[in-house]
């Protein structure tokens, strides 16, 4: 066991999820390779430590030999201070939610070379707005139970063009049977 983290209860019942070391290592190794991370890159810790995205943000920087910058909550709430923090610290890797970044001018994020959207639906409009200014724009999806992220789409807002290593997705019906392609079901 690496850690226990509690879900938000979007399925109706909040619960603790036990995440093993092999899940964390698989996540970090897969993202490190998939994102082509170089040593000494600068990462921002945007997520609160009680959210699973913080695991990815903290440990991906350490796993990669990078630097992790921790921003205070007042700077997150003030968009001008947020942009100043990113610029002054030359942050290269930024991971946040679409709803937060929707309020940010992408042209002001001059140091950011890799922008990861996660935690919410990413519209084509928002993706395109940031893709004009940032070389690598990534859409991530994954429930807490799969160690933060399962699917990544690099330079596309459509999820599903890349799975992390050692990961399989299944769409199942109410009786836990695999449904045919194109049939509605639950993602497992």
Describe what this molecule looks like in 3D:
The protein is α/β, with parallel strands linked by helices and 188 residues long. Helices cover 28% and strands 20% of the residues. The chain contains 6 helices and 10 strands, in the order ββαβαβααβαβαββββ. It has helices spanning 21-34, 52-63, 73-77, 79-88, 98-101, 124-131; strands spanning 3-6, 16-19, 42-45, 67-70, 93-96, 114-117, 136-141, 151-154, 171-172, 186-187. It has a 4-stranded mixed sheet with strand order 5-6-7-8. Helix 6 (124-131) links the parallel strand 6 (114-117) and strand 7 (136-141). Helix 1 crosses helix 2 (52-63). The longest helix is centred in the first third of the chain and has 14 residues, at 21-34. The chain is globular. It starts with a strand and ends with a strand. 27% of the residues are buried.
